[in-house]
């Protein structure tokens, strides 16, 4: 039941945070008339990197499990 719960939670959290961040960035743009380009780039680079690392961990676990079942 709990297998993979943490990684799924992280993915959902990242998606929700990205939606909230995009909403706030649009609000800042509407108020100030300037887009926080560097902040937007840094945020989405960070969240993409986190998801990429999480997928790498998951792939490693799957490959390791497949190797154990082949033996």
Structural commentary:
The protein is an all-alpha fold and 71 residues long. The protein has one domain. Helix content is 87%, strand content 0%. The mean pLDDT is 93.
Q: Indicate the proportion of strand residues.
A: under 5%
Counting helices, strands and paired strands, the structural category is mainly alpha
Counted by DSSP, the helix tally is: 2
Overall geometry: elongated
Gyration radius from CA atoms, angstroms: 18 Å
Order of helices and strands: HH
Total strands: the figure is 0
> In whole angstroms, how far apart are the ends?
26 Å
Main β-sheet, in a few words? none
Percentage of residues assigned to helices: over 70%
Mean pLDDT over the residues = 93
User: How many discrete structural domains?
Assistant: 1
Query: pLDDT below 50 for ≥5 consecutive residues: which ranges?
Result: none
Keywords:
71 residues, single chain, elongated
Topology:
Layout: H1 5-32, H2 37-70
What's this model, at a glance?
The protein has 71 residues and is mostly helical. The chain is 87% helix and 0% strand. It is elongated and about 60 Å long.
């Amino acid at each position: 039941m709990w297998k993979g719960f943490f990684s799924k939670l992280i993915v959902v959290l990242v998606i929700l945070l990205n939606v909230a961040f995009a909403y706030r960035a649009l609000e800042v743009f509407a108020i100030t008339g300037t887009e926080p380009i560097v902040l937007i780039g840094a945020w989405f680079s960070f969240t993409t990197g986190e998801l990429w690392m999480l997928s790498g961990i998951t792939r490693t676990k799957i490959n390791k499990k497949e190797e154990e079942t082949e033996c």
